[in-house]
Amino acid sequence: MGGKGFFVAEKVILTEADIRRAVTRIAHEIVERNQGAGDLVFLGMHTRGVPLAHRLAQRIGEFEGVEVPVGALDIAFYRDDIPTRGAPPVRPTTIPESIAGKAVVLVDDVLYTGRSIRAALDAVIDFGRPRRIQLAVLVDRGHRELPIRADYVGKNVPTSRSEEVQVRLQEVDGLDAVVLVTG
Amino acid sequence: MDVDDFSVADYDLVFETADAMREVLGREIKKVPTLRGKSVVTVFFEPSTRTRVSFEMAAKALSADCTSIAAATSSVAKGESLLDTLRTIQSLGADLVVMRHSASGAPYLAARHLDMAIVNAGDGCHAHPTQALLDLYTIRRHLGRLAGLKAVLVGDILHSRVARSNLSAMTTLGLEVTLCGPPSLLPGSNGDAGWPACPVETDLDRALEGADVVMGLRLQLERQEQGLLPSIREYVRSYQITRERLARARPGALLMHPGPVNEGVELTPDVAHGVQSVIEEQVTNGVAIRMALLYLLLGRGQ
Lengths: 183, 302
Fold this sequence. Notes:
The structure holds 2 protein chains of 2 kinds.
Chain A: E1 9-14, H1 16-33, E2 40-45, H2 49-64, E3 70-73, H3 82-85, E4 103-111, H4 115-125, E5 132-140, E6 152-156, E7 164-168, H5 170-173, E8 177-182
Parallel strand pairs in A: 2-3, 2-4, 4-5, 5-6
Antiparallel strand pairs in A: 1-8, 7-8
Chain B: H1 8-25, E1 39-44, H2 50-61, E2 65-70, H3 82-91, E3 96-101, H4 106-113, E4 117-123, H5 129-143, E5 150-154, H6 161-172, E6 176-180, E7 200-201, H7 204-208, E8 213-216, H8 232-239, H9 243-246, E9 254-256, H10 269-272, H11 279-298
Parallel strand pairs in B: 1-2, 1-3, 3-4, 5-6, 5-8, 6-7, 8-9
Helix pairs in contact in B: 1-11, 2-11, 5-6, 5-11
């Protein structure tokens, strides 16, 4: 697999327990920074941002007793690389309620160049004018190409561009792990 | 061109993309920037409202620039040939052309000689692939599946490119299709080439028994001068879809029609606007399907 070298090395950088703790910590940070969970809306970015957003909302429900609405955002229509890379598959976007005046937290698995987040910001703003938009990611692997940073990070992982960070989640992949693939 | 070369996976891709397009059409701001800077030209050598407007709205919702040419007001009226007209449009910088022509096969000719993408919006009696796609998409949305459903196409099958494309799509997707109409308007009776083998039934009551999908087709009044029908009244008596006849289909069966409806001929008004009718939704889904096609065709890597 991988196709880049003769052998592929996989290194686990977050285990199932690590992911659980990171999600719990981020959930607490979000509530703390927003002084409660009252006007939050979580938008998970397809594919793996969506289950992560649900997990964050569930955790906040447990300790804060507030049900945070969760939506799913597809950014295919807003990408800047359609002319060169072709049309990516699109999945429906669901916005659970009006986001006007709300504190929107975008949730994604990996923050890399920042281009997906740029596209996501355009997509969100087409649905209304939130009071603020924040970004939560499970892994920040560096190599930004745009002036974008995350507000909440599970783990910062220094990587080289030839490496690949793969997030695997129970809901999509059948198990929880973050691995660094070199090859 | 046509749906003949579509695989089941191709249909799934188009239908799933159309789901996302429906979401865009349901927004307050029905526009995404995806195809900015692309230009789409519609060239209709035959009259049409819904198909042309549907393509235009689809292009605009994706932020493509859209220009429409009607043959009557273009240089075609001065005698310019089809290919020269299309070459001019290509030189003007179009990325994709949507064309309708009265000659079967015209888009194939165009595609052979031009570099830009061509979408067939209906050619003669041959094919109307985007109509078949939106019909199948509408059925899938309502009944949740396609394979194993029983569909009946009723009326002027012989002249209908809608029927031809639907038959092809339905066969690929595993529906059981029956064609129903007067013998003179069914394929086979005149030794027509190009129609795949398919059960035919001349008795509408029998054909409707247990159907999940009933599709009326427009009686192409402009083509009825060759003595294929004794009279419209005769047709209405035997082949009009009425409430009583529709009751022979499965409860909850869908009533479809590609439009424009000759109300009181193919369908009675109470059926056309009744609870089982999805005719208006077919039109809405048409925009989503055409957006999906434009996205998939124009979004291809260079």
